[in-house]
Amino acid sequence: STDPNQIRAAQELIVGSYDLPLKQGLPPEVVANAALATAIGLMVQVHGSENVAAMLPELSDKVRAGVFTHE
User: Fold this and answer.
1) With b meaning 16 or more CB within 10 Å and e meaning fewer, what string describes 49-65?
2) In tens digits, what is the pLDDT along the chain, a chain of 71 residues?
3) Per-residue H/E/C for the chain
4) pTM score
5) How far from 37 is each of 4, 40, 42, 49, 68, CA to CA, in Å?
6) What is the pLDDT of residue 69?
7) What do you get for the CA distance between the two ends of the chain, in Å?
8) 3: alpha, beta or left, given left = phi > 0 and alpha = psi -120 to 50?
9) Out of 23, 38, 51, 71, which could bridge 47 as a Cys pair, Cβ 3.0 to 4.6 Å?
10) In whole angstroms, what is the distance from residue 41 CA to residue 49 CA?
11) How far apart are CA 16 and CA 9, in angstroms?
12) Alpha-carbon span 37 to 21, nearest angstrom
């Protein structure tokens, strides 16, 4: 399993890198969609297509529960 501290550190770096394309004038929804597509692609490389597809319903439930909501 992955260390929660490593996850938080990675998230902070990723969120920090999100600002650059916004400053270059790309719309937030474009940046978010590109980030999601990139993340899913990396997950497929690490875990395989079938495993990632199996994770998606759980992620959907987490989205509905507000786990990924950032204020």
Assistant:
1) eeebeeeeeeeeeeeee
2) 579 999 899 989 988 888 999 999 999 999 999 999 999 999 999 999 999 999 999 999 999 999 988 75
3) CCCHHHHHHHHHHHHHHHHHHHHCCCCHHHHHHHHHHHHHHHHHHHHCHHHHHHHHHHHHHHHHCCCCCCC
4) 0.77
5) 23, 5, 9, 13, 16
6) 85
7) 28
8) beta
9) 51
10) 9
11) 11
12) 15
Q: Which two tokens stand for residue 33?
A: 């969609």
Query: Amino acid letter at 26?
Result: L
Q: Which amino acid makes up residue 71?
A: E
